[in-house]
């Protein structure tokens, strides 16, 4: 039997544990790192690559992807959806600016209850959603890169120019964090005719990746994006190909990593979209049906801010 595709991930984890380059990083936590990594996941049979060697909260990750697609950049809308993974950055900024040692819970409650406060303190700047849907050019015109890619997929699917990306150099200094997953490039195969629908693949270029927390989220949310776009253009999902630049294990994730490589992967779940919305803007978390997910237990780990 073929080796379980999750071993691509576990091999990276193991390599970082054994041979990772020890370095200090921006957060001060310290990492074990390697540079230049690729993984490929075949999604054509409905496979949804949610890792199984720990429970991955795939709904949270997919909700984050849906939030990117809305073009929003304020954590208020994430919190309304009970997604708390971005709170640390505005919280850190607020504490440093005001000296107030507010708890995460109290800060989140205030963002939710007080729109003015959310405006002032909950915005992450022009991060992913803004760049994907409303990239501003030098003349002030806004570009919807996602809609443009979908339009090209419908009208000229053999194009080699179906890309959207978030690394807007002019606006980097206004972002809470620089984009980590940066380039999304689509490719269609099987256009030569025949019975089968064409296959849509996605290559994601990610300059920096937290292998313990970020990667499991990124892989399943990128697979979810591919499934949505494929459905919109009436194609079958092909491969998700993921290319990482600085791929690192934070030093406070070493115990989790050792446990992950001790565990044996179980079959990946399957994803089905229960509804076809009129456009890429119409998806909701309820549209994602995931079956056969039977992971090992969750492992809690701190996020480096
Ligand atoms: N250091 C770092 N790692 C990241 O992965 C990361 C950042 N920073 N900054 C921006 C976003 C935020 N991301 C995050 C942040 C936290 C979790 C996290 O804590 N995940 C938990 C469960 C969280 C939950 O369900 O609420 C996990 O066990 O996966 C995941 C991704 C991904 N990105
Ligand atoms: O989707 C994401 C977002 C962020 N990360 C990680 C990668 C790094 O550990 C930090 C970002 O720090 P930089 O100093 O800007 O590289 O966040 C991720 O893995 N996935």
UniProtKB/TrEMBL annotation:
Q: What is its EC number?
A: 2.1.1.45
Enumerate the UniProt keywords alphabetically. Cytoplasm, Methyltransferase, Nucleotide biosynthesis, Transferase
Residues bound to (6R)-5,10-methylene-5,6,7,8-tetrahydrofolate are: 210, 304
Its GO CC terms are: cytosol
Can you tell me which residues bind dUMP?
Answer: 26, 160-161, 207-210, 218, 248-250
Which GO biological process entries does UniProt record here?
dTMP biosynthetic process; dTTP biosynthetic process; methylation
Q: What broad class of enzyme is this?
A: transferase
Taxonomically, the superkingdom here is Bacteria
Report TM segments: none
The record places the active site at 180
List the Pfam families hit by this protein, alphabetically. Thymidylat_synt
Q: Its pathway?
A: Pyrimidine metabolism; dTTP biosynthesis
- Cell location: Cytoplasm
Which PROSITE patterns does the protein's record reference?
THYMIDYLATE_SYNTHASE
Q: Which GO terms describe its molecular function?
A: thymidylate synthase activity
Catalysed reaction, written as an equation: dUMP + (6R)-5,10-methylene-5,6,7,8-tetrahydrofolate = 7,8-dihydrofolate + dTMP
Q: Which residues form the Thymidylate synthase/dCMP hydroxymethylase domain?
A: 8-305
The family classification in the record reads: Belongs to the thymidylate synthase family. Bacterial-type ThyA subfamily.
- Subunit structure, per the record? Homodimer.
Q: What does this protein do?
A: Catalyzes the reductive methylation of 2'-deoxyuridine-5'-monophosphate (dUMP) to 2'-deoxythymidine-5'-monophosphate (dTMP) while utilizing 5,10-methylenetetrahydrofolate (mTHF) as the methyl donor and reductant in the reaction, yielding dihydrofolate (DHF) as a by-product. This enzymatic reaction provides an intracellular de novo source of dTMP, an essential precursor for DNA biosynthesis.
Query: What name does UniProt use for this protein?
Result: Thymidylate synthase
Species this protein is from: Mycoplana dimorpha
Q: Which gene encodes it?
A: thyA
């Amino acid at each position: 039997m073929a080796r379980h595709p999750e071993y691509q991930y576990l091999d990276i984890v193991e390599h970082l544990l054994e041979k990772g380059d020890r370095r200090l990083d921006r957060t001060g936590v310290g990492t074990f790192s390697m540079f230049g990594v690729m993984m490929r996941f075949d999604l054509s049979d409905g496979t949804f690559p949610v890792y199984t060697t720990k429970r991955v909260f795939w709904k949270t990750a997919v909700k984050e992807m849906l939030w990117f697609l809305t073009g929003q950049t304020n954590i208020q809308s994430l919190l309304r959806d009970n997604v708390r993974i971005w709170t640390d950055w505005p919280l850190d900024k607020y504490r440093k600016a005001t000296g107030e040692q507010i708890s995460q819970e109290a800060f989140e409650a205030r963002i939710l209850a007080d729109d003015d406060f959310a405006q002032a303190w909950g915005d992450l700047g022009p991060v992913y959603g803004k760049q994907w849907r409303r990239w501003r050019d030098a003349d002030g015109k806004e570009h919807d890169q996602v809609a443009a890619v979908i339009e090209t997929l419908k009208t000229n699917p053999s194009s080699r120019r179906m890309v959207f990306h978030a690394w807007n150099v002019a606006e980097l200094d206004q972002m809470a964090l620089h984009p980590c997953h940066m380039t999304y490039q689509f490719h269609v195969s099987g256009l030569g005719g025949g019975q089968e629908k064409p296959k849509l693949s996605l290559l994601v270029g990610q300059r920096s990746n937290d292998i313990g927390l970020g990667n499991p989220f990124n892989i399943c949310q990128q697979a979810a994006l591919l499934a949505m776009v494929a459905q919109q253009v009436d194609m079958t999902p092909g491969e998700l190909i993921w290319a990482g630049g600085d791929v690192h294990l934070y030093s406070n994730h070493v115990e989790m990593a050792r446990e992950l490589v001790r565990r044996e992967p179980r079959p990946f779940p399957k994803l089905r979209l229960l509804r076809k919305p009129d456009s890429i803007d119409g998806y909701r978390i309820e549209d994602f049906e995931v079956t056969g997910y039977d992971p090992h237990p969750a492992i809690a780990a701190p996020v480096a801010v």
